[in-house]
Give the backbone structure.
Amino acid sequence: MESGIDLQGSAIQLLVDLGVPTPIAKVLWLPLPMALMLVVATVGVLIAVWLERKIAAAVQQRYGPEYAGPLGVLQPIADGLKLLFKEDIIPNLADPWLFTIGPAIVVIPVFLSYLIVPFGQNLVVTDLGIGAFLWISLSSITPIGLLMSGYASNNKYALIGGLRAAAQSISYEIPLALSVLAVIMMSNSLSTIDIVNQQANHGILGWNIWRQPVGFIIFWISALAETERLPFDLPEAEEELVAGYQTEYTGMKFALFYLGSYVNLVLSALLFSVFYLGGWSFPVPVDTLANWLGVSPALPWVQVLTASIGITMVLVKTYLLVFIAILLRWTTPRVRIDQLLNLGWKFLLPVALANLLITAALKLAFPVAFGG
Amino acid sequence: MPNLETRTEPMVLNMGPHHPSMHGVLRLIVTLDGEDVIDCEPVIGYLHRGMEKIAESRTNIAFVPYVSRWDYAAGMFNEAITVNAPERLAGIEVPRRASYIRAIMLELNRIANHLLWLGPFLADVGAQTPFFYIFREREMIYDLWEAATGQRLINNNYFRIGGVAADLPYGWIDKCHDFCDDFEPKVEEYEKLITNNPIFRRRLEGIGTIAREEAINWGLSGPMLRASGVKWDLRKVDSYECYDELDWDIHWATEGDCLARYFVRIGEMRESIKILRQALDNIPGGPYENLEARRIAEGPKSKWNDFEYQFAGKKIAPTFKIPEGEHYVRMESGKGELGVFIQGNDNIFPWRFKIRAADFNNLQILPHILKGAKVADLVAILGSIDVIMGSVDR
């Protein structure tokens, strides 16, 4: 397996060559990928918001945003700026501290999870050994923030919304974790890089989606529930709870929720493509293609090309999933809270458990195909 | 061992008058136990404008423009019942052509009404998209109205004692035919999108069930009553206007739940198309629009000058006096039995003009079918009742 472009290594080498001591060079490098990831996540959200508006409009036979930039691409920025300039209101009887940290607790874990999202062999902020686990544990911090802001708002709709968010996240985390566990079991690693590499051998046929058909559906349903998208957007069900836990929020605090939910959507789609759709791998392995064409994969320009294809593939897969999520949102009604919990506990959880056990059995029986 | 005990207290939640799904300004004081609804007390009157009192100081002609504000999704029905009341009291005959025009307008309005029910109802269960589809079709109905009456949503001011304000303009009947051809497949489209969606069905099946006896005892009417297994439609029962001359069926269901009410309304939209097509074909004077010109061309002796071909039989004076007497007239609006109890005093103003709004009466049952429902069901059940607060509060 080619390691591809090693930006970190090259950058540090460059700094060392310029006469910077190695430790300082490493420290200098450190914030760069983080800042880059923050930008990538935010831009990803802007694109997702724009897509949401445009696709919703197409579904509903409207034009959608048109005037802010070509095809309305600047509309999300306009939205954000509007929210930035709005008055920040804290309701009289709300708990100002909890009310303020609530949105932060919702948003920070989601952004943190971008640490483990790989765009290529070395195009990842950090290749953590506990990558997938980190994401699952970070995602369970979010409902605390939702409950906190719902409770602190001193508003009954917000309270019910916060409670719903907590109940929903807790019930769907377990099937989500179990379906990811099956993937991890096949990859023998929690690292997102290893999970992709394990799928990279046979092009599109090697992707986990073929080996985990059930797990992939469970993951998708649970991910939709975790990101609170229709048909599972109960915590902010407009027709019942006005806006759920967001009811009392305005300005930037509201924007944080808004941002958080879209970052979470894009993150789920990214991880979905990593876990099930082979991450950055092209449907036909790039190395094989290079061999056919008679070029060495080690050539610098081939490596740049490979990295670009990798990033493109991740983004294509991710936004395909975002597209499906948006379509779902604009075509389905919302489930009821008891139906949601029944689906989570009585259907998804047993199925996910069975899926895990079957994966384990298959791994023992056919170690070649199931990563024994 | 310490005895752990959890104690829960019901939460009183004030939904409305400003709430996204209260269909205007309905206020529900809901007592919740977690997500379960224990009790619900509707509070109405936030949109009361004294329509009955206003009627007492207006002549009929001056009052008709007001009435489309009762039920602003169904202005034509309100106008029709407003003119029907003194018209029947005075025994004024309506030409058959006028009667057909009225029936056409009423059926268009029934479709518009059911469309404006369908969109918000689906939004109530969480699906936003059908709202935009129904507006697409409703616009066409409004275009037709604009051509015939000069106004779109409300204020059509089209019905007059003894007929309608103006004949249909040239080409209108063809356009209305076009609308029928265009709309019928659209109903299929709605059904394809909505009816068999498992989430939609699970949200509505067995929710807000009303038994047959219950429905009758609570004085429900319209689709609410028909969905509970009572085949009762005033168009058949009272045979007003020209409905008897047309071939159509009453749509009804026996389940009595929200889903049944959905099916009844969808069926009624189809049936309205059927009625419309027949009425457009059978209208006296036929598709020959511009009857006025024919009348002039062929002389006063021609059949075009007959009573039956007029759009208004007796052009009443603005000083038309409502004769002494009192009676109750009713008609089947999109929401149910819309009635007016009128008391005449041989005066140009009615002495009493009591409006029986269908949705006001249908809304009464809401707290009684909510027992054991969830918060989400509450919204769905309210949506299935089809209330317009302008009509409830008047």
